[in-house]
Amino acid sequence: MRALVVGGGIGGPVLAMALRRSGIDVTVLERSAFHARDGGSWFTVTPNGLSALAAVDALDPVRTLGSSTTGNLVLGATGRRLGVIGLGAPLPDGTPALSFRRPDLAAALLDLARDRGVQVVEGARVTSASSGPDDASVTLDDATTLSADVVIGADGIHSVVRRAIDPTAPTGRYLGLVNFGGITTGHAQHGLAPGVWTFVFGRRAFFGALPLPDGRVVWFANEPRPAVSADERAATTPDEWRAHLVDLAAADVGPFADLIAAGRLDLAADNTHDLPSVPRWHRARLGLIGDAIHAPSPSSGQGASMALEDAVVMGALLGRHADDPAAAFSAFDAARRRRVEKIVAMGARSSSAKTPGSVQRVISEAIMRLVFRYVVTDRAQEWITAYRADLDTATAGS
Ligand SMILES: Cc1cc2nc3c(=O)[nH]c(=O)nc-3n(C[C@H](O)[C@H](O)[C@H](O)COP(=O)(O)OP(=O)(O)OC[C@H]3O[C@@H](n4cnc5c(N)ncnc54)[C@H](O)[C@@H]3O)c2cc1C
Q1: Class level of CATH domain 173-274
Q2: CATH code of the domain occupying 2-67+97-172+275-352
Q3: By CB atoms within 10 Å of each CB, which of 157, 219, 232, 278 scores lowest?
Q4: Mutation probe of ligand 1 site: the residue of 4, 5, 10, 174 with most atoms within 8 A of C-beta
Q5: Listed residue (227, 211, 206) closest to 352, CA to CA
């Protein structure tokens, strides 16, 4: 069997490695050059995502890129502690959740896939995909056409393959938050707990920071506001965005105004979208994984982990049903849909807690403390982080 994977982000390279283990001949088509490794946001992969990496023997090669992260400490605007959110029980070897710089992880996974016999084509932008009864194909922006037995879109929230499967498929929904991220080097860590994300429900924005073992501090800010337009983006420099963020943080207790003032902005004004439910995940020889079918709000902290789980499950099912891709795609939908749609819905609720005017913003910090104590507990999150996608049990835990 030959497979074309569109997208060499987080899920694509892991799917390619899973397919190679079943002897499938795989090419990954990635529009950008990942070796331009500047900038980019950080994210945390929880044990469910890490175990998916381990299922294709990809965890050990990338673990040193990640920073151990044991939980999220949540504070109010005055610095009052509202609660702690766990990130799941560590793996049996003791590995806790790991926070990665997204482009570093993506580039390392792509290199690993290449080492394992996957053909990786960078700078290959797919503009359309189609499927006949016997094969599937994609067209690139230079008009090249490539064919294989299956095409799987791991091409993110604005997926071209999703549109080829169903031209009426939903597109991303704006969540009312604009995301900024950056890093501060050579500056005080302000007593931030090591290996813990500190989150602050500030008066004008939501902030997060993670001190790294080398002394740097990674931070982000979510500003509730209408989406940033292309014109506003073009007219605003990184320094102007940073000054704006310092101003947003100035009203709150905590280190954010200082950290942002001394730091570098790596992710500027990213409008936050999610994709709650995509009715058709496959058609004939075209399938999808990851954000292309279930992008959660970044507030869920699960998008990358779910893409990794998908990759392992899809790889196992295509290996098992190599002569009948439609059967593999149907089994994938049955195994995955309930779980991922529930996580996306949960992420949308967390996002709305960060926007003013919502119920969560007007309830007192005392009530939020009760929510963190009794509702958002480790036990209540266990169904997310204790899930294990496994090559041999592709439907496990669904
Ligand atoms: C600010 C921010 C914070 C986040 N924090 C977290 C977190 O803490 N934890 C977590 O688990 N998730 C987090 N996420 C979500 C996570 O980044 C995504 O869910 C995850 O990357 C999805 O993986 P994917 O492989 O499906 O898609 P992507 O990683 O988006 O990869 C898609 C790839 O396809 C390529 N591509 C797109 N179109 C084409 C085309 N036409 N032709 C060829 N290539 C194409 C893109 O260049 C890209 O490399 C966060 C996201 C953001 C934006």
Answers
A1: alpha beta
A2: 3.50.50.60
A3: 232
A4: 10
A5: 206
Q: What are the C-alpha distances in Å from 6 to residues 2, 120, 129, 216, 326?
A: 13, 10, 10, 34, 18
Q: Which of 42, 72, 128, 155 to mutate to test the pocket of ligand 1 (most atoms within 8 A of CB)?
A: 155
The encoded tokens of residue 90 equal 């560590």
What's the pLDDT tens digit per position in 284-313?
A: 999 999 999 999 988 889 999 999 999 999
Residues of the chain with CATH 3.50.50.60: 2-67+97-172+275-352
The C-alpha atoms of residue 1 and residue 6 are separated, in whole angstroms, by 16
Q: What is the position in ligand 1's atom list of the atom closest to the CA of 267?
A: 1
Q: Tell me the whole-structure pTM to 2 decimals.
A: 0.94
**Using one digit for the tens of pLDDT, what is the confidence trace for 71-92?**
999 998 888 888 998 999 999 9
Task: Report the distance separating Cα 221 and Cα 244, nearest Å.
Answer: 11
